[in-house]
Amino acid sequence: MTMNRAIRHGGRLLALTVAACGIAAATALPASADEQPTRPELTADCASGEGKCTFNSPQLGEAYLGQFRQVSDSLYNCSTSDATQSMTWSDTVGSTDSVGVSVTAGGKIAGIIDLSVTATYSHTWTSTHSESSSLGMTVKPGEVGWISRAQVMQKVSGTWQTHYDSPKWGHYYWFWDDTVTGPAANGTDGKSNAVVVKSRKMTDAEKQSCSADAHEGRAFVQER
User: Fold this and answer.
1) Is 123 helix (H, G, I), strand (E, B) or coil?
2) Is the pLDDT of residue 116 over 90?
3) In degrees rounded to 5, what are phi and psi of residue 115?
């Protein structure tokens, strides 16, 4: 929903609320175009508690496997035989809203979404997931290897509502649609997290680094 549409919707609901509840708020005037708040401003008020916010009518999408990304250091094999080594890896996956803004763990925004999802679906929603382990990997001569991981993800869509004790930007209430993408529990909708070893041929520049005295004829680890 566009912000303009949200404003009109907010105005209608405000009028209905005033009529139904008898709140002495009829003096609130419609905001002019240059007084319309931005989504970050409204979200900031939700996060700070200045706006009493709810995340209404949450709809969970089907879980899916997210993109693979490197979660370990890289192992370069400059030798003439296979190089085998145990590599540690760690991964933290967060949540973002529909405009790419991070939804932080433990904050008011994440807590509000969790409260809404829990009330509707009877299970909790988490904004971040961290995991770490180690894995043995074998890299062929002249190649570089690393560990990649993909996290099960899920989208939750809903409508934010703010309620101010006194009119802000001309209204007590503001509304906007949002979709938040975050990590889901392993096994959700039959989808499973994945950890794999990947490798590729070294580039010419990387091969040249193998000729340096420090790396000649052996394997070495380069940090991410």
Assistant:
1) coil
2) yes
3) -60, -40
